[in-house]
Design a protein that fits this description.
GO molecular function, one term: O-phospho-L-serine:2-oxoglutarate aminotransferase activity
Helix content: 25-40%
Bound molecules: pyridoxal-5'-phosphate
Oligomer: single chain
Pathway: Amino-acid biosynthesis; L-serine biosynthesis; L-serine from 3-phospho-D-glycerate: step 2/3
Strand content: 15-25%
CATH superfamily of the largest domain: Type I PLP-dependent aspartate aminotransferase-like (Major domain)
CATH architecture of the largest domain: 3-Layer(aba) Sandwich
Distance between the termini: 35 Å
Number of strands: 14
Cofactor: pyridoxal 5'-phosphate
Structural class: alpha/beta
Largest sheet: 7 strands, mixed
Subcellular location: Cytoplasm
Family: Belongs to the class-V pyridoxal-phosphate-dependent aminotransferase family. SerC subfamily.
Radius of gyration: 21 Å
CATH class of the largest domain: Alpha Beta
Length: 360
């Protein structure tokens, strides 16, 4: 068996230890004689899985008691609609547009009310996070929305925007559990699992209880009402049982690594190796303003499309896969989520150095 170094933006690399454990339990989960895939979501065994997963996530993020944790489906895209449907009481929301995902969320919200774009970095191809210290927050805004880590462009909010007392909603799909967060600063934190947490098909939403009400926009489907899922403890309908089981295993792995503070140190170390090289390289250049650099997604270019393509091809042959940049920006992107070992980044940098020498 040979595993590659997988730099995919998502679905992405998962800890090998977790995958091995899941493989061992595949045919007989803890003496039940069946796989978690074959198990009723109402069974005692699955109840234990989902309760333990929630408890471990609460411990990792220090989630206060007045926040609910929901395991949902429909991808982050479904949250682009659920958020306005559930929160737009005044039918006004403010969006900070720092990339394609924030833009899509902003566009979706326009279906339900007035969604104001109060800041953007589109003028420079989303290569920075705009100054959010004094934003024109709408007096009647129901919430202020950010995408905290921009997967495609490789930027991250280093400080949260001043929302002037309005509820902050954040898409953390590509930085979930990569570092500690102060949950109390947010009304909703949500993210798709398929980058840092588990397989695709699970969305985790952490929502302050006062935002979970029956007072949703008229016509909001039962399944798209947060209260439905909160009241049923994420078991209103059949959830993605296997996905939740895998997320739970990753939470346990994170606890074993020392929690989110240790993860942050590990991620900073990894990112530094790559950014330091990009800063000194003559051939490769990072595309993001240094102050906005993500620890998770690192886009870079050579400035020559043919050379980019040659690099991606040769890297793939050498076992460094999924380095092609997002189709909307081109170039390269290395996603170095929690489960990417430091050796993977060191080996990538060694390969880039060799490529640079050979193609100078
Ligand atoms: N938000 C962010 C930050 C993402 O990176 C992605 C996907 O890559 C999405 C939203 C969309 O996620 P999904 O495909 O789960 O709807």
């Amino acid at each position: 068996m040979s595993r590659v170094y997988n730099f995919s933006a998502g679905p992405a690399v998962l800890p090998e230890e977790v995958l091995r454990e899941a493989a061992e339990e595949m045919l007989d989960y803890k003496g039940t004689g069946m796989s978690v895939m074959e198990m009723s979501h109402r069974s005692k065994a699955f109840e234990d899985i989902i309760h333990t997963a929630e408890a471990d996530l609460r411990e990792l993020l220090h989630i206060p008691d007045n926040y609910k944790v929901l395991f949902l489906q429909g991808g982050a895209h479904q949250q682009f609609a659920m958020i306005p449907m559930n929160l737009m009481k005044n039918k006004v929301a403010d969006y900070i547009v720092t990339g394609q995902w924030a833009k899509k969320a902003w566009q979706e919200a326009q279906k339900y009310g007035t969604a104001n774009k109060i800041a953007s970095s589109e003028d420079k191809t989303f290569s920075y996070i705009p100054d959010c210290s004094d934003l024109p927050i709408s007096p009647d805004a129901d919430y202020v929305y950010i995408c905290e880590n921009n997967t495609i462009y490789g930027t991250k909010f280093k400080t949260l925007p001043d929302t002037k007392g309005k509820t902050l909603v954040a898409d953390v799909s590509s930085c979930f559990l990569s570092e500690p967060m102060d949950v109390e600063k947010y009304g909703i934190i949500y993210g798709g699992a398929q980058k840092n947490i588990g397989p695709a098909g699970v969305v985790i939403a952490i929502i302050r209880e006062d935002l979970i009400t029956e007072d949703v926009l008229p016509g909001t489907p039962t399944m798209l009402t947060y209260k439905t899922h909160a009241d049923a403890e994420s078991l209103y309908n059949t959830p993605n049982c296997y996905g939740i089981y895998m997320c739970g295993k990753v939470f346990q792995w994170l606890k074993k690594q020392g929690g989110l503070k240790a993860m942050k140190e590990h991620n900073e170390k990894k990112a530094k190796i790559l950014y330091d090289f990009l800063d000194e390289s003559v051939m490769f250049k990072g595309t993001v303003e240094p102050a906005s650099r993500s620890l998770m997604n690192v886009p870079f270019v050579t400035g020559d499309k043919d050379l980019d393509a040659k690099f991606i091809k040769e890297a793939q042959a050498a076992g460094f896969v999924n380095l092609k940049g997002h189709r909307s920006v081109g170039g390269m992107r290395a996603s170095i989520y929690n489960a990417m070992p430091i050796e993977g980044v060191e080996a990538l940098v060694a390969f880039m150095k060799k490529f640079e020498k050979e193609n100078a």
